[in-house]
Amino acid sequence: MISNEGVRLGAEAARRLAQTGLYEFESGLTDVEFERIEQEFGFEFADDHRAFLAAGLPVNVPPEEGQTWSKPWPEWRSGDPERLRDQLGWPVEGVLFDVERNAFWYEAWGERPADAAAALATAQRRLPDVPLLVPVYGHRYLPAGRGSFGHPVLSVWQTDIIYYGLDLVDYMHQEFDEARSDVDETWGPRATVPFWRDLL
User: Fold this and answer.
1) Which of 60, 110, 120, 140 would be a feasible disulfide site paired with 71, CB 3.0-4.6 Å?
2) Count of domains for the chain
3) What PANTHER family is this protein classified in (predicted)?
4) What is the tens place of the pLDDT at every residue in 69-110?
5) Residue 54 belongs to domain spanning
6) Using the 8-state DSSP alphabet, how is residue 147 labeled?
7) Of residues 34 and 193, more confidently modeled
8) 84-110 b/e with 16+ CB inside 10 Å = b?
9) With left for phi above 0 and alpha for psi between -120 and 50, is residue 110 left, alpha or beta?
10) H or E stretch including 111?
11) Helix axes 47-55, 4-20, angle to 10 degrees
C-alpha cells in the first residue's frame, strides 16, 4: 500500500522540477513498468520516489563539458540494464574503493584486519546487508522501500556522503532552483537509513 503522503511528496517534487523548465518529461512509469523494474533489479521504490517517477520521467539532455554523469537521470523505462545496475551499485562500490584504497573502516564491523585483502573481503561480505540506495539523479540517492517516504536525499561519493535535501521536494529546490538562496540555519535533515547515516 502506497501512502498518501508519499504520493503527495512525489507529485510535488515532480511539479517543482517541471517549474524549473530545465527538462522535458516522458510519460510517467506505469504500475506494470514499476513491477518489471522492481523485479528485475530486486528492490522497491520508496513511495515518494515512485510517485515522482509516475508523474513523469525527466529526459536527459546532452552533458555539459566535465559533467560526471553523461545521463544523470536513471533511464528506468528503456535504459541499458547494466548501466542501471552500475548506478544502483555505485554507493557500495564507493565504500569498497575507500576500504581498499583509503583505509576506510566501518566501526560496527569490528577490528579492521591488518591484511588489506582480508579487510576488503570482510567489507564485501558485510555490504550486501546494508540498505539499498536508489539513484534519483547522478550520485544523489534515496533509500529503497515501499511504504517509506520523506527520507533526506543523500549525495554519495565513496564514503563522502552529505545531505542534498530534507526530502525529495526540498532536493528539487536545492539541486535545480537556480534562484535558491543560502541554506538557512534551521535546515536540519536527519538521515533515516542505517549504515549510510553513520557516514554523514
Assistant:
1) 60
2) 1
3) OS08G0472400 PROTEIN
4) 788 999 999 999 999 999 999 999 999 999 999 999 999 999
5) 4-198
6) T
7) 34
8) beebbebbbebbbebbeeeebbbeeee
9) left
10) none
11) 40
